[in-house]
Design a protein that fits this description.
alpha/beta; Rossmann fold; six-stranded antiparallel β-sheet; Beta-Lactamase
Length: about 450
């Protein structure tokens, strides 16, 4: 099978861009040059009559082909339209023609292929890895995994060679510049919790945000960070950029965003998150924020919190607020220091002040069958799933808040000041310690009685 018209034009325009005529161009000038060359090559192929058998037949289709070429050269190719769709939350790709999009309303649909072959998909990912991010990243047989932030803030993760077909997951954040007031309006928390968490941030309490995947941890972390005094210097540390506190907002004018780096082609130059946390201690940071704790960086993070970087925050995967302590301990014992459980708990008690746990639920609109809907392919030759019958919206909400009190042997002692209510949303439980209440009052805390709340969608 010959290459498609878009692939032919893209290849020719790429050659033009590598020539002397385009070497001095950058930004929009380079993009406009590519657009003009795309139309020139379209005209040439049409006049010669020897182009691909399927080509544009109208000015509208010519415009569409030229845009597809520009998306392939400067954006994400056919993936670009999915990443630009504000209604899409996640995109999961299991080979070029198995593209699943999860929408904000909870529906999951099989979309059009994003490439003509798996090899073309891998080529696209290699191009993306070379163009986006702080430094060029490899994606090949020697380095079959890729993590990076896309323009606009979406997070891309891809693997090849360890799966039968290349697999890609893209996580889009629909809420990137929020405050606790915004989340309160969405129903993630009530006024009492908003007052508590805002005061805790201003009082420089160390906070861990826990929850399962897609529970809203990053969104809540952004909202908590919005309460930080803009005069403070913040250092954020992530495996791959996702928080975006340094973009699109004037809330944090003095902020340094740091990203872990994989090894180069010689296997050298790797800088893990743990090393970046240690480096942050020398950067005059008032607060350190780790986007996601996934391993041995937990120990330097806790040390940073207990050694003068009060008011720091991070997220962690856990099934409950109490489970966050177990997850921290499991990471600590895997670290080079092999910290035992009792020592880890002492470190937790000396470093952390609050754990805030998020939960979520789907509000389904079932068709009564519990099965997927099916529809014919565009060519009418086969049936394939096009959407799940279970549709609705996912509500994310705070379910539990713990105040860390102390540690005793293999147990971290904490008060669950908000616990899951009958509908799993946070309701008041044990009282805060009197000295904590007095301190938080000085930073605007107004204790209130809070009932069940909803959740952002």
């Amino acid at each position: 099978m010959g290459e498609s018209l878009t692939t032919t034009i893209r290849r020719r325009v790429a050659e033009d861009l590598s020539g002397d005529a385009a070497s001095a161009l950058s930004g929009e000038d380079r993009r406009e040059f590519a657009r003009q060359r795309a139309f020139l090559h379209l005209d040439t192929l049409s006049a010669a009559g020897n182009g691909p058998s399927v080509g544009p037949t109208s000015p509208v289709e010519e415009q569409r082909t030229a845009q597809a070429v520009l998306d392939a050269l400067f954006g994400l190719g056919r993936l670009q339209s999915l990443v630009d769709d504000d209604e899409i939350e996640n995109v999961d790709i299991n080979g070029c023609d198995q593209v699943w999009a999860t929408f904000a309303d909870g529906s999951k649909r099989l979309m059009d292929p994003v490439a003509d072959s798996d090899d073309e998909l891998v080529d696209l990912l290699r191009s993306v890895a070379g163009r986006f991010g702080l430094a060029e990243r490899r994606f090949d047989m020697a380095r079959p995994e890729l993590d990076l932030q896309l323009p606009g803030g979406a997070r891309l993760s891809a693997v090849m060679a360890v799966t039968a077909r290349p697999a890609v997951s893209i996580r889009r954040h629909r809420f990137t510049d929020l405050s606790l007031d915004d989340l309160c309006a969405m129903g993630t928390l009530d006024d009492g919790l908003r007052s508590l968490l805002a005061a805790a941030v201003r009082a420089r309490k160390n906070i861990v945000v826990s929850g399962a995947m897609n529970s809203g941890k990053t969104t809540l972390l952004r909202a908590l960070a919005a309460e930080i005094d803009p005069r403070e210097r913040i250092v954020t540390i992530e495996q791959a950029f996702e928080l975006g506190l340094d973009t699109g907002s004037s809330r944090h004018p003095d902020l340094v965003a740091m990203e872990a780096r994989p090894p180069n082609i010689e296997g050298a130059g790797r800088i893990p998150v743990a090393d970046l946390v240690r480096r942050s201690l020398r950067m005059n940071a008032d607060r350190v924020i780790v986007g996601e704790v996934l391993g041995d960086e937990v120990l330097p993070m806790l040390n940073a919190m207990s050694q003068g970087r009060s008011g720091s925050m991070c997220t962690i995967h856990a099934e409950s607020s109490a489970g966050a302590f177990r997850r921290i301990a499991s990471y600590a014992v895997q670290a080079p220091e092999r910290l035992p459980l009792d020592a880890t708990n002492l470190l937790i008690a000396g470093a952390l002040h609050f754990v805030v746990h998020l939960d979520s639920e789907m509000h389904d609109d079932l068709d009564g069958t519990g099965r997927s809907e099916f529809g014919a392919d565009k060519d009418g030759t086969a049936d394939r799933p096009t959407a799940f019958a279970a549709r609705g919206s996912r509500a994310r909400f705070i379910a539990s808040v713990r105040e860390i009190v102390d540690a005793e042997g293999v147990q971290v002692i904490s008060n669950e000041i908000y616990r899951p209510g009958p509908d799993r949303r946070a309701v008041p439980s044990a009282p805060l310690r009197p000295d904590t209440v007095d301190e938080l009052r000085r930073f605007g805390f107004e204790p209130t009685v809070a009932g069940p709340v909803g959740g952002f969608r």
